[in-house]
Amino acid sequence: MGKRRHSSHEGTDDRRTKHSKKAHADDDATTAKDAIDAKATKASSKHSAFRKIQFELTVSILPSGLEDVSKTVQESLQHFLLKYSSGMKGVPLAFNSVKILKNGSGNILNELPHIHYSVACDAVVFAPKQGQRLTGVVRESFHSHLSLVVYNYFNASVSADALREQGFTFDLEDEQWKTDDDESLALSVDDRIRFKVLKVHESAGIISIEGEHPKRMDAS
User: Fold this and answer.
1) What is the DSSP letter of 24?
2) pLDDT of the chain along its 220 residues, tens only?
3) In sequence order, which residues have a C-beta less than 8 Å from that of residue 125 and are 6 or more positions away?
4) For the segment 64-111, what is each residue's pLDDT rounded down to a tens digit?
5) CB 71 within 8 A of CB 59
6) CA distances, 137 to each of 3, 97, 189 (Å)
7) 120 Cβ partners below 8 Å, 6+ apart?
8) Rounded CA separation 205/71 (Å)
9) Torsion sign over Cα 25, 49, 131, 194
10) 209 in helix, strand or coil?
11) DSSP string spanning 109-169?
């Protein structure tokens, strides 16, 4: 079947093809994004887990969104936030400088109702790599692992084996990981822990970080 074009007056940027229905930003996602540390917007250091990239993708909207194509595209992009993207190799946190390419024209394929727009944008992406250092807050302590949250949103953990390698043992009575040398170095709930990224796992768009070499932030 042939293609039909539909024009608009706006434009965007992105390299990966994706289709999404018109969508409003999810309140929970917005709250989580706002909770990400402010340094995410800098994304400048090569040692940072945050990157700023230029990206292209295809956004598909329904005819009901044609009254304001630019607004509809912006709302649709919100659907990609805080979900792992294989194309971006990380979790997008924000889109900026959004432009609709091809002079604002969209395509209709095979007589289907969606209009497909090529979009370009700058994206701030959370993409931790093996060996990088991150800081997490202890949420729960188990004999099998230590559960952390990074930037108030991303899940992380340090396994029992990794903890034992650092000289920690689990105290069943106190439910804490402690060291024989200095009990003041025990890892407790709400402690801030600095750790090294070992692996990053992804399932259904959600990432979890596996860490090693944990050290409490206030430890000498």
Assistant:
1) P
2) 444 444 443 333 333 433 333 333 333 344 444 444 344 444 445 679 999 999 999 999 999 999 999 999 999 999 999 999 999 999 999 999 999 999 999 999 988 899 999 999 999 999 999 999 999 999 999 999 999 999 999 999 999 999 999 999 999 998 899 987 777 788 999 999 999 999 999 999 999 999 999 999 886 5
3) 43, 50, 51, 52, 53, 85, 88, 89, 90, 91, 92, 93
4) 999 999 999 999 999 999 999 999 999 999 999 999 999 999 999 988
5) no
6) 52, 33, 8
7) 11, 12, 13, 14, 54, 55, 56, 98, 99, 101
8) 25
9) negative
10) strand
11) ETT-S-EEEEEEEEEEEE---TT-EEEEEEEEE-SSEEEEEETTTEEEEEEHHHHHHTTEE
> Tokens for 174?
């106190």
- Stated length of the chain: 220
